[in-house]
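Give me the fold.
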Amino acid sequence: MTSIYTGRIITSSVLLILLVVAGIYIHRTGKPYNTFVFTVHKLFTVAMIIILFITVKNYLGATDVSSLLYLLVGGAGLALAGLLISGGMMSLDKLQETMLVIHRICTGVFLVSYSILAWFMLTNTTNKL
């Protein structure tokens, strides 16, 4: 069964992959950051957040979901907030090494939460939990 959210999830997944690739490139090239790649990284972040917010909001409103889904959404949201804060701090040269560790941990938490959430949304199994 195809989910009505498939297109949005694919779009946000592609943006997420591009974000990770751009982030790795930014880290490896170091300062001064490549302005184009840094700007693309930020714009893709904003686009992905908007698409995910709208998709998850619509999904939560249209589906009878379990508390597990809310836990995943909360975990992804907290990780996303950590990513935004640590990324901003790193771009300002504040606590560079500490923020890099936090950024990497939040990336892992977000990827896991997002992957499970996307799978639930694509397979429409959240109401069976």
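Residues 35-62 form the longest helix (28 residues).
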